[in-house]
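Lecture 7 notes: from sequence to structure.
We start with the chain below.
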Amino acid sequence: MNAPELSADSRLMRAVSLQQQGKLREASDLFREELRFNPMSFAALYSMSAIENKRGEHAKALQYVDRALRVMPSYALAHQAKAIILAALGRNQEAALSLDNARRCADSEPQQAPQALPQPRLLEVSHPKQRLAMEVLFDLPSDMLSLYSLMVMASQAGKPWDALQLIERGLAAMPDYPPAHFARGTILQSLGLFDEALQALDQAILLQPDYLEALNNRASLLQALNKIPEAFLSLQQALRYKPDDEKLLMNTGVILTTLKRNA
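Predicted structure tokens for the same chain:
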């Protein structure tokens, strides 16, 4: 005896449940079945983009999310999902445009999840006024390499708060990665959060004492804050590791001139 055919709503809810349990093959079978009946099902198209992206099939994921956006062109989280997929494909300029589209859509109207999809949740970052929408079915990647790449893309797109969120998420997964602390310090400095920037640079140097770029940036930041003796000590530490570095020697000369002037 054949099993009774699922209704569209039951089929979607069953597929979403399987997807959340990590049973991607069974979930994708049900989503494809839904798309045979309803090729314009946003929930099925959007979810299939998430599944294919998780499988590493980024080109297929892009096709699905593009189809989903033709159905709901103002759904911010779909534009954000497209940005993540494009970044995975190395198409960073297009990804930056998709992030812009996501921001415009989120700012223009309340975001209501389509039928069968969980409501979006907002992930609070360390500065609560700056938020980036997250969605249960299409989480940002959790590995440092992917997050670091997305952080670079967001920074290049002129979105430092998004970049900060991404690198902090990466540090939650890999807290002892010195370049991530250095990148966080650079972003915080660009936002004018100098004390926090110094703390981030200090952490990078603590983890890697010969991190010349971090030592040099720390010295430059201290100099800008008129903390000249501390800046000089930071450069001296760097020169112990590379005494013939031209940039370090030049910056040391500048700081020595300032110290003599202030004496």
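Points to note: The mean pLDDT is 77. The CA atoms of residues 239 and 249 lie 8 Å apart.
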